Amino acid sequence: MANRPVQKETSSQPHFLQFNNLACETAGGKVIFATDEWFAPARNLLKRDPPEFIASAFTDYGKWMDGWETRRKRIPGHDWCIIQLGVPGIINGLDVDTSFFTGNYAPFTSVQAACLDQMPSFTLEGDRTGMAASPSQFEAVAQLNTDSWEELVPMIKLNPGYSESCHNYLNVTYPHRVTHIRLNIYPDGGIARLKVYGIGMKDWSTVSSQDLVDIVALVNGGVCVGYSNAHFGHPRNIIGLGRADNMGDGWETARRLDRPKVLKVDEKGILQVPGCEWAVLRLGHPGIISKIEVDTNHFKGNFPDSCKIEACGLTPDEENNLIRNQWCSDKTPKWRILLSPQKLKAHHRHLFSGESVMQCGPVTHVRLVIAPDGGVSRLRLWGRPVSNNLTHPQQFSKL
């Protein structure tokens, strides 16, 4: 069995890769229609784990592939599928990943989008390998008028699934909320994964200013906008749904090389180390935070020794400038302590409220700082959404 290593970050990679994957199966994304799924079902597109290749694996229908692969088309038309996003929102970019599809990849693709007031009731269940859409399914999906959906990406050529060419990154400039996308392939073939990077969009008019809401959650529009290190797991994972499934579903850094050879602690038992790691998150809505959860679930031999959380209010222009400078700028944010340094435990849900949470007033961004390094599976920030003079969530530009 061959597993493709996680691609290391380079300066040439698009910025949108640190945003949330709104279509991932762990976020609730699902395929609700596909014209053909002969060699491999379309639901594989939304898997969280990287594609794999097993040379000896075959099914009754042909070579087993970890992706969506249609049969060699012998009738008019082209293949396509419809994906319902797990988190509706603004799409910033796509990764059409053709990993391991080398002589059988889809040569061209295009992507369309829609915002549907009511979610379609039909869906695809079970293993659909060797199947194709039935006449009744075509009739049902025709009611969605997908041919006339807005074009996110015009027809473009795809690269084959070799390690150096498999990631087809597509920038998107569509400024409207999306609930569903139509992925077209021309005329047939295979794609391993489709990642839809963007920011969730919640209707905050339905939320009372007295309600406590997790205002950094993926589903509420929270997003990671900067970090120091993500060697084993990206910090966007910490605002995901539910508790983490495993260590891979969290933020984990490499071990810092400036760790003292002999470790010492202060009177509170917190390690005295020179370095730390950090992640900056933009809240889904400006708010006043009163309750915090830091969960180290699954991190048993690699949890951080301690953490602290800082908060500030930024305008869109200030945020954009800091992102361009990788959060290192002469005009650094006026971070205020939201949670003072706290000793952490392994595989434990840490809850902080009352006097532990400092009064910072309305804020738009938080910075989670861990020392010296390690992994956090989830961060929850419960607070009251408020209006302020700095910004409205939808004013932030898409970089």
Element layout with pairings:
Elements: E1 2-3, E2 20-21, E3 30-34, E4 36-37, E5 52-53, E6 58-59, E7 62-63, E8 68-69, E9 79-97, E10 108-114, E11 131-132, H1 135-142, E12 150-157, E13 167-171, E14 178-186, E15 190-191, E16 193-200, E17 213-214, E18 223-227, E19 251-252, E20 277-295, E21 306-312, H2 316-324, E22 336-343, E23 349-353, E24 363-371, E25 375-376, E26 378-385
Antiparallel strand pairs: 1-5, 2-16, 3-9, 4-11, 6-7, 8-15, 9-13, 9-14, 9-16, 10-12, 10-14, 17-26, 18-20, 19-25, 20-23, 20-24, 20-26, 21-22, 21-24
Features:
Allantoate amidinohydrolase; disordered N terminus; single chain; 2 domains; mainly beta; 26 strands; 8-stranded antiparallel sheet; Jelly Rolls; 37% strand; 399 residues; Galactose-bd-like_sf
Structure commentary:
The two termini are 38 Å apart. The chain is globular and about 75 Å long. A hairpin with a 2-residue loop joins β6 (58-59) and β7 (62-63). The chain has 2 domains: 15-200, Galactose-binding domain-like (Jelly Rolls, Sandwich); 204-385, Galactose-binding domain-like (Jelly Rolls), CATH 2.60.120.260. The chain has helices at residues 135-142, 316-324; strands at residues 2-3, 20-21, 30-34, 36-37, 52-53, 58-59, 62-63, 68-69, 79-97, 108-114, 131-132, 150-157, 167-171, 178-186, 190-191, 193-200, 213-214, 223-227, 251-252, 277-295, 306-312, 336-343, 349-353, 363-371, 375-376, 378-385. The strands form 7 sheets. Strands 2, 3, 9, 10, 12, 13, 14 and 16 form an 8-stranded antiparallel β-sheet that branches. Strands 17, 18, 20, 21, 22, 23, 24 and 26 form an 8-stranded antiparallel β-sheet that branches. With 399 residues, it is mainly β. Helix content is 4%, strand content 37%. It comes from Sinocyclocheilus grahami (Dianchi golden-line fish).
